[in-house]
Design brief:
CATH class of the largest domain: Alpha Beta
Oligomer: single chain
Order of helices and strands: EHEHEHEEHEEEHEHEHHHHH
Shape: globular
Radius of gyration: 21 Å
CATH superfamily of the largest domain: Spore Coat Polysaccharide Biosynthesis Protein SpsA, Chain A
CATH architecture of the largest domain: Alpha-Beta Complex
Helix content: 40-55%
Number of domains: 2
Largest sheet: 10 strands, mixed
Number of helices: 11
CATH topology of the largest domain: Spore Coat Polysaccharide Biosynthesis Protein SpsA, Chain A
Number of strands: 10
Strand content: 15-25%
């Protein structure tokens, strides 16, 4: 019998001073009240540590860890080592959640008998909010279906924050601090340990996408991480999912092209020379993979033009984007 709280909510915190109170308030306002919050100040240079301490004085459910900066994986691992809940949830410190999110997730995981439950989310960009529904109606999927969904990058994707896990799933599993896309990597491992995964048709989490110069560079880092993940995981996944060869190659091609475009757009070649060369050479030396049926004819031609003449490609790309923007504007009139 678990003697701790029903739920442990892990919140890694770094340099989010202006968003942190909103995040914590949304957690403390949950209709489910039997939880602990393990907030990890990962050496944040702003006032996050002070804000966390103030909140912990007001609400004893908040436990604060102050540590030297080690990255989000290190912060999550520190929290998991202290977690006492029967279930584990994750919230990013610049996001927030619906008041009934965890009550709904806990009820669903109990009702379904599954070890993982996943909900939809609201994607918030500036003043626009887009609801991302991961299924049309509540349903359960098998472990293999879930892993295939991660490979195919379906709507539930490899996130941590829009789901609930039974704590024992993390026995023997921690976030690798030297592996890129650690959340996707760990989700693969966790999915392998369960029989069924439950999907909910409700959006309960608010995922904030900040578009500024800092986050544009962060997006480049994300694209670099995705490229490294898809290149590095291919051999491991193809052994167990040989029927997914086409989608695995599609992911590698898309990741390589995306990272090249992002590095070029942000003029970051000097920061990522090895990644740039690897992605470019992968596309150049594997032109046969461009015949993959999952690659649209338009994207195939764009990749081929990029490889043939990058300057011409970017001129064409700018004109194409202007044309599409004007066409869409005209159609809305």
């Amino acid at each position: 019998m678990n003697e701790g709280p029903l739920l442990s909510i892990v919140v890694p915190v770094y340099n989010v001073e202006q968003y942190l109170a909103r995040c914590l308030d949304s957690i403390l306002s949950q209709t489910l009240t039997d939880f602990e919050v393990i907030a990890v100040d990962d050496g944040s240079p702003d006032n996050c540590g002070k804000i966390l301490d103030e909140y912990s004085q007001k609400d004893k459910r908040i436990k604060v860890i102050h540590k030297e900066n080690g990255g989000v994986s290190s912060a999550r691992n520190a929290a998991l080592d202290l977690a006492q809940g029967e279930y584990i949830g994750f919230v990013d410190s610049d996001d927030y959640i619906e008041p009934n999110m965890y009550e709904y997730l806990v009820d669903s995981i109990k009702k379904s008998g599954c070890d993982i439950v996943i909900c939809g989310y609201h994607e918030v960009l500036s003043d626009e909010t887009k609801d991302i529904r991961i299924c049309e109606r509540e349903t359960s999927i098998s472990s293999r279906e879930g892993i295939v969904g991660l490979i195919e990058d379906k709507t539930y994707r490899g996130y941590l924050w829009n789901r609930l896990y039974k704590r024992e799933l993390f026995d023997g599993i921690r976030f690798p601090e030297t592996v890129v896309m650690e959340d996707l990597y760990v989700n693969h491992l966790l999915f392998e340990k369960v029989d069924k995964i439950y999907l909910l048709d409700k959006a309960l989490y608010y995922y904030i996408r900040r578009e500024d110069s800092v986050t544009m560079k962060r997006r480049t880092k994300t694209d670099v991480a995705l490229f490294r993940y898809h290149m590095g995981s291919y051999d491991r996944l193809i052994d167990n999912f040989c029927e997914m060869e086409s989608i695995l190659n599609f992911r590698r091609i898309s990741a390589a092209f995306n990272v090249l475009l992002n590095i070029d757009a942000n003029k970051l070649q000097s920061e990522y020379p090895e990644v740039y060369d690897e992605a470019y050479n992968f596309l150049k030396n594997n032109s046969d993979l461009l015949e993959n049926n999952l690659i649209s004819a338009g994207k195939r031609k764009r990749i081929q033009l990029y490889l043939a003449n990058k300057k011409v490609f970017f001129v064409f790309n700018r004109l194409y984007n202007i044309f599409v923007h004007r066409k869409n504007t005209f159609e809305c009139l």
